[in-house]
């Protein structure tokens, strides 16, 4: 926990809730009831936890305890159904979370469960893109989040809270609806490792989203990738590569000076993949910078022998970003080189570009027409 002044319950695990319950001389099973109410039932106010005695609810309330569910401050709705949320926390700071209905941002060939129309209508499938920090310190040259700098880490409760707020907003029933999580919003999750992993545990055991439906993306924080490999419960791993050699990668991702491609690939080669699991490499294509067929051949060479797939993302443009989006045929040529080398490679369709919700565009842009709340 960050400090003992924290009275927000969201973020506490079963162990911590058990300690809290004990400090009020309540029986142990109350901790489980609280845990269920916070994470499985996703209640917003303590008063509504009907499994707890009313008197104790009031006592907790008087002591300043609250659920701590973050507030949806704004919604921006894209023509493609994507919703970008501005989510506000108790200290007045806010972050972005993105809801993408049906599919996970457009991996070709991933539409395996398209049923008849009736099923499709009833069966909701969506991906939530989650932030792990307010802003980001990593400073990738093509990313709008970098322009914010890092304001602070999110707590585990704030990471989980984003997801709960969005699930509640769509009235999602996790028993019948399929939700994927991608930790690809604002921030570098592996520079907020403890809180991020605590959030993962609460999401898996509390909220009930399987780890197999979660992916975390890192810019390549090598020591944390190593730690991550030995976690008993963990999402799938994606790595932002974005350069095919050190010279190019360093130019677009200054962090490459600290952990270069050799160091990165070395830790990835010994990364303990589970059955049928693959690493994902993300590669943002920047016209005339990293998008030639020669670059593609270098990427194929780097990934040789790894169980991996590649997601290509044509640059999502934004103000103050000095790069240019490559033409479609260059993207396809790049893809072909990798596919011919035997590496499954997908071109990701941008989601919510019109509302600045796409990859690398999260910067709390508010100078758009707001459609809510
Ligand atoms: N910080 C983590 C996760 C968030 S970024 C990371 O960098 O991996 C999620 C993805 O968006 C990364 O793969 C990143 O390379 C990509 N991205 C960043 N800016 C982009 C932009 N302007 N256009 C397209 N993709 C971008
Ligand atoms: Fe941070 Fe990821 Fe953006 Fe790089 S791409 S600045 S690591 S959010």
Notes on the protein architecture:
Helix content is 31%, strand content 18%. It has 373 residues and is of the alpha/beta class. The protein folds into two domains: 3-62, DNA polymerase, domain 1, CATH 1.10.150; 71-355, Alpha-Beta Barrel (TIM Barrel). The strands form two sheets. Strands 1-2-3-4-7-8-9-10-11-12 form a ten-stranded mixed beta sheet, with helices on one face. α11 links the parallel β11 and β12 (345-347). α1 (14-23) packs across α2 (29-40), α7 packs parallel to α9 and α10 packs parallel to α11 (328-340). The chain is elongated and about 70 Å long. The structure holds S-adenosyl-L-homocysteine and iron/sulfur cluster. Residues 136, 142-143, 184, 188, 217-219, 240, 242, 282, 284, 313, 315-316, 321, 359-360 line the site of S-adenosyl-L-homocysteine.
How far the N terminus sits from the C terminus, by CA atoms, comes to: 31 Å
What is the molecular shape? elongated
Chemical compounds bound to the protein: S-adenosyl-L-homocysteine, iron/sulfur cluster
Q: Radius of gyration from the CA trace? A: 21 Å
Give the CATH H-level superfamily of the largest domain.
Aldolase class I
Average per-residue pLDDT, rounded, comes to 91
Strand content: 15-25%
Helix/strand-derived category reads alpha/beta
* Largest beta sheet: strand ordering: 1-2-3-4-7-8-9-10-11-12
The CATH C-level class name of the largest domain: Alpha Beta
Beta strands, count = 12
Determine the CATH topology of the largest domain.
TIM Barrel
Number of helices: 11
Sketch the major β-sheet: 10 strands, mixed
For this structure, the quaternary state is: single chain
- The CATH architecture of the largest domain can be given as Alpha-Beta Barrel
The share of residues in helices is 25-40%
Which sequence of SSEs, written as H and E, runs from N to C?
Answer: HHHEEEHEEEHEHEHEHHEHEHE
The overall number of domains is: 2
């Amino acid at each position: 926990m960050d400090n003992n002044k924290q009275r927000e319950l969201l973020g506490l695990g079963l162990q911590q809730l058990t300690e809290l319950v004990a400090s009020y001389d309540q029986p142990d099973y109350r901790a489980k009831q609280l845990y269920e109410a916070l994470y499985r039932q996703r209640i917003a106010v303590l008063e509504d936890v009907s499994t707890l005695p009313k008197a104790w609810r009031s006592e907790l309330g008087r002591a300043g305890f609250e659920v701590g569910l973050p507030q949806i401050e704004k919604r921006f709705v894209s023509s493609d159904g994507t919703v970008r949320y501005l989510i506000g926390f108790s200290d007045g700071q806010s972050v972005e979370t993105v809801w993408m209905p049906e599919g996970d941002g457009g991996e070709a060939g991933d539409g395996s469960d398209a049923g008849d129309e009736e099923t499709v209508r009833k069966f909701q499938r969506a991906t939530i893109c989650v932030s792990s920090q307010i802003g980001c310190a990593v400073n990738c040259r093509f990313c709008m989040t970098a322009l914010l700098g890092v304001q602070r880490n999110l707590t585990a409760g704030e990471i989980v809270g984003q997801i709960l707020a969005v699930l509640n907003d769509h009235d999602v029933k996790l028993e019948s609806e399929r939700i994927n999580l991608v930790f690809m919003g604002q921030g570098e999750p592996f520079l907020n490792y403890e809180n991020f992993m605590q959030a993962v545990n609460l999401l898996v055991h509390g909220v009930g989203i399987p780890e197999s439906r979660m992916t975390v993306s890192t810019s390549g924080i090598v020591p944390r990738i190593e730690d991550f490999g030995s976690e008993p419960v963990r999402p799938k791993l994606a790595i932002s590569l974005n350069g095919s050699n050190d010279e190019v990668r360093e130019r677009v991702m200054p962090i490459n000076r600290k952990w270069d491609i050799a160091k990165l690939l070395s830790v990835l080669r010994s990364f303990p993949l589970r059955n049928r699991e693959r690493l994902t490499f993300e590669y943002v294509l920047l016209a005339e910078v990293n998008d030639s067929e020669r670059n593609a051949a270098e990427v194929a060479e780097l990934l040789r022998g790894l169980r991996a797939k590649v997601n290509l993302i044509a640059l999502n443009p934004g103000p103050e970003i000095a790069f240019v989006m490559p033409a479609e045929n260059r993207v396809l040529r790049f893809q072909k080189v990798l596919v011919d080398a035997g590496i499954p490679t997908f071109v990701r369709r941008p989601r919510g570009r019109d509302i600045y919700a796409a990859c690398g565009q999260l910067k709390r842009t508010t100078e758009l027409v707001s459609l809510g709340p």
